[in-house]
Amino acid sequence: MKYTEALKRNYEFRRLYSKGKSAASPYLALYVRKNGLHRNRLGITVGAKLGNAVKRNRVRRRLKEIYRLNEDKFRKGCDIVIVARVKAVYARYGQLEQSFLSLAQRLGLTLSEERQQ
Hints:
Blueprint: E1 4-6, H1 10-19, E2 21-24, E3 28-34, E4 40-45, H2 53-70, E5 78-84, H3 93-106, H4 113-116
Parallel strand pairs: 1-4, 4-5
Antiparallel strand pairs: 2-3, 3-5
Helix pairs in contact: 2-3
């Protein structure tokens, strides 16, 4: 991921949950907040409810790859947290990607069409 670094600290996640904008779908919940930097910071949360470590890591890898492939479509300077829900374990890759992109668009994270080209 060229324009993104990891969001790791607990207080950063908590601040995003309390002060950021959020949107949810059956598969994911997405939290976004401006960070004042020239790069995005990404955090992915996959709770123990989703299953054993193999299932959780599979969901985490899929979400990270979805973000990586669509990274150039997003505005810079945001903190982003993706929270996987139980249905994400059983979802197809295309369903997760569509869900993520629609949530990002709903929160104003995506660039306008003319700026992408």
